[in-house]
Amino acid sequence: MGMLSWLRPSGRVSFFHSKDNNLILKKVGKGTKQQITLTDLCRTATPKTCPLNPFLFNGHLQTAWTTVKFDDVPVYYKRWMFEADNPMFSGHFAVDFVVDPFEAPKDSQLTDQERKYTQPSGLPERTAFFAADEFEALPSDDTKPMLVVLHGLSGGSHEIYLRHVLAPLIADGAWEACVINSRGCAQTKITSGVLYNARATWDVRQAVKWLRKTFPNRPLFGIGFSLGANILTNYLGEEGEACQLKAAVLCASPWNLEVSSVSLQSSWLGLEVYSKVMGSNMKRLFEHHVDEVSKNPRVDIDAVRSTKYLHEFDRALQCASWGYPTEGAYYRDASSVDSLLAIKIPFFAVQAEDDPIATVKALPFQEIGQTPYGVMMTTSWGGHLGWFELGGSRWFVKPVTNFLNLMAKDVDLETPFVVENPDKAPGHVANNTSNLDVTPKPDFNPMRRKLDFQSALLN
């Protein structure tokens, strides 16, 4: 028995959520008994054990294995370039829609041979542009659930971790999906000096509005990975009760960016491996777009090029681009740890406690206990977007896809979700009917930010 347990070791699975304020979901069917709490749904979605590859026995090895180049999850995309509808964030961004497999097109327009929107090295594998008539035929009145995906830092629709999630959902045609690529990622060119940052929600907002209009009957769901999870959380918080998504999944989010950054800098591996690699990736992305970025008079190109670590890159580029005085100010303003308190749709956060990048020290243990809308599941083992099992499959795909399928198929999405104790919801100050109550009635706004775009537009 001991030998078998060594061969198939299992990580601990833990759940964190509000203890006295449930979100009650109505299941498909009739009767008051057809209800389930969000917490129970997340527990149902999650396997009871987390048996991972015993040869990748800690978070560093699990994370390192993500860099191994193997590609056994083919997902095909058709791309469309959207022009930003907000003059503050001018430029273009690419949305890649999951489609049926196709042969590489010979039409130069479908491969962007002129490289109007694409880097000289060409499109990612299994990706082509929509023909104009294909895109015009895209709108539909069908009711299939659709997943909106946000990738991690400097990633894109080609990343295998997100394809691992997409593949089982689209296998039988039950789901539709698209990936919103951050500006300059996934081999795209930027067409203005505007890149993206950890709270760049503007392209997500535009894309979701377009999806809602184009597919009026599809229930929309969201999933974000790593930095994409941080961006998605900020978007969900900004939208609040007006959010067009029905539910969301947040995978390996860094949550508190300042804590995560300090944690990376506090160890040799964190600084010289993880921060250095991520900084190099961002510098490489920067060099692809240096001609456009250099048009921003606030950006010192030589200063960016001289950086070595991720926090140095953010100091040189993000602070200069967006007006933050320090990278700490940027991290505090762009963190999503408070934003989760403003979310008004069900969300499921999935984290590994041994993640060397999205450190356990930055996880919102207290915050998740204050909202009925979210559940955080952690595993004691898994690394950063790793969770590799024997054979190469990823364990986290199971709870994520199970959650999405349960929400899409078993929950009545037309019936409003019910908060068990509204008076205990975040930011709510219970009214005291006594005339003697003269205490202040504070209003906590988790989405209040220091970077004021509205003022900038007015100046």
Automatic annotation (TrEMBL):
Family annotation (Pfam families): Abhydrolase_1 (PF00561)
Superkingdom classification of source: Eukaryota
Keyword annotations of the record: Hydrolase, Transferase
Record field: catalytic activity: an aliphatic alcohol + acetyl-CoA = an acetyl ester + CoA
EC number: 2.3.1.84
InterPro entries per record: AB_hydrolase_1, AB_hydrolase_4_sf, AB_hydrolase_fold, ABHD4
Keyword Endoplasmic reticulum on entry: no
One MF term in the entry's GO annotations: monoacylglycerol lipase activity
Gene3D superfamilies linked to this entry: alpha/beta hydrolase
A Gene Ontology biological process term: medium-chain fatty acid biosynthetic process
Ranges where the AB hydrolase-1 domain occurs: 145-362
Function, as annotated: Displays enzymatic activity both for medium-chain fatty acid (MCFA) ethyl ester synthesis and hydrolysis (esterase activity). MCFA are toxic for yeast and this enzyme could thus be involved in their detoxification by esterification.
The family this protein is said to belong to: Belongs to the AB hydrolase superfamily. AB hydrolase 4 family.
Identification of the protein by name: alcohol O-acetyltransferase
